[in-house]
Write a structure and sequence with these properties.
There is one protein chain. The chain has 301 residues and is of the alpha/beta class. The protein is 32% helix and 28% strand. The strands form three sheets. A six-stranded antiparallel β-barrel has the order 8-9-12-11-10-13. It has a five-stranded parallel sheet with strand order 3-2-1-4-5, sandwiched between helices. Strands 6-7 form a two-stranded antiparallel sheet. The protein is elongated, with a radius of gyration of 22 Å. The N and C termini lie far apart (49 Å).
Length: 301
């Protein structure tokens, strides 16, 4: 992997929130201004999963989702490096000299203020600048982005999503909160109720609380409108095997075959909490109301 002259940034970028975007957009702008290639170097698995597995918290979004969101910001290339104990023990100087300068031919390196690297993650932005300057490589440090006096972080956003604060999470993400998942075979219960759904297996992403949400669904770069139910289907299952949370998406006016395909579900508004109905007819009536309310929210204006 030898790249001709680039502007590079390095990080996990979990969630690709507004703090990450500030760094990545600067990389894109500098690369365009200088006629260089813009590159994001990211890692998989998350370094903390290797360095401290007992305290590792699952990523906010999956690697595939992360790469897609980074590319949407105009980056020329996203390089995913496998993070291992060997990489964790790589001396800081070698990471800069061998990888960023040697392989990626970085002419400028742009990172966030909290950037750390090298063995034990002990090297920071000062050492980065010292090493890079020996090769006449520029460095630029982007200050953290704050919202309501707090530094924006993936940890805060994850907590907001799990607590159902979707609007607040979206504000920190700088985009509507979404999950990426693959359509898998389900029980087909919704089909018998007149509302066929796609059962989504999320790619290890943070999931909002149970309930019904108005959503937009992206499939093959085309956007559709729909409604999603997250929960354990209490009207049908009281005990046993089906207590695992399911994600079922009903897409309005869609009749394509999407088993095995990836969908991005963009959350717009929560309609109601999940609840158990006494009869199937009352559930069907509520589903009609949910779909109608979702349509009004999504098609208004």
């Amino acid at each position: 992997m030898k790249i001709k002259n680039s502007v590079v940034t390095v990080g996990v970028f979990d969630g690709v929130h507004i703090g990450h975007k500030a760094v990545i957009k600067q990389v894109v702008a500098r690369a365009k201004a200088s006629g260089l290639k813009s590159i994001v170097v990211t890692f998989d698995p998350h370094p903390m999963k290797v360095l401290n597995p007992s305290h590792f918290v699952p990523s906010l979004i999956s690697l595939k989702h992360r790469v897609e969101l980074i590319k949407r910001l105009g980056i020329d290339e996203v390089i995913v490096m496998k993070f291992s104990n060997r990489m964790a023990n790589l001396p800081a100087q070698r990471f800069i000299e061998d990888i960023l300068i040697g392989e990626l031919n970085a002419r400028e390196i742009i990172v966030g203020e909290d950037f750390c690297f090298g063995k034990g993650a002990l090297a920071g932005i000062r050492m980065l600048a010292e090493i890079a300057s020996k090769y006449s490589v520029k460095t630029e440090i982007v200050r953290p982005v704050k919202k309501n006096s707090h530094v924006v972080s993936s940890t805060i956003i994850r907590r907001l999503i799990i607590e159902g604060e979707i609007d607040k999470a979206s504000s920190l993400l700088g985009r509507p909160f979404s999950i990426l998942g693959t359509v898998v075979s389900g029980t087909k219960l919704a089909r018998t109720l007149g509302y066929p759904t796609a059962n989504l297996n999320p790619h290890h992403e943070a999931i909002p609380p149970s309930g019904v949400y108005a959503v937009k669904v992206v499939h093959k770069e085309k956007e559709y409108k729909g409604v999603v139910n997250i929960g354990v289907r209490p009207t049908f299952y009281n005990h046993g095997h089906d207590k695992e949370t399911s994600i079922e998406v009903h897409i309005f006016d869609f009749h394509g075959k999407i088993y095995g395909k990836d969908l991005e579900v963009i959350f717009i508004r929560k309609i109601r909490d999940e609840k158990k109905f006494n009869t199937i007819d009352s559930l069907i009536e509520q589903i009609k109301k949910d779909a109608s309310k979702a349509e009004k929210l999504l098609y208004k204006g």
